[in-house]
Amino acid sequence: MECVFCKIIAGEIPSYRVYEDEGAYAFLDINPIARGHTLVISRAHASKVTELSAQEAAGVALALQKVVRGVERALGPEGLNIFVNQGEVAGQVVPHFHIHVVPRSRGDDVRFVTPTVELSEEEFRELSGAIARAI
Ligand code: AMP
Ligand code: ZN
Questions:
Q1: Is position 127 within any domain?
Q2: Catalytic site includes residue 45
Q3: Pick the catalytic residue: 45, 96, 98, 100?
Q4: Most Cβ neighbours (<10 Å): which of 48, 55, 99, 113?
């Protein structure tokens, strides 16, 4: 077992745990981008959300809501960013599915700067159709 997050779940690597149940485990990110930056991970090892079973995915979603509620109660952030990096190109470093929960406050230094792409109406139609047909 080479996966650092599997090792955390197994207790072989220490973590600042905040929650665990049969489907998920949550702990503080060791390199936080804000105070209270928390990771919610699937107990099952899978790198992508689509590699989880429906039950495993649902379990992580339920744990996410509990963790977010806890972060809100404990820290009272003005807002949160909740996101997943999937694939190296998207910034995923640890290939074990995890959801970032990042408390936000007005005037903090967290920034997600990204350009937008321009699409024609036809492209919007094609894209929505292609995705819808593939679901
Ligand atoms: P990502 O770039 O989405 O794969 O995020 C991986 C995250 O895991 C990073 O924010 C790291 O700071 C965090 N991380 C890596 N190793 C550990 C660890 N041992 N304990 C806590 N967080 C970790
Ligand atoms: Zn793993």
A1: no
A2: no
A3: 98
A4: 99
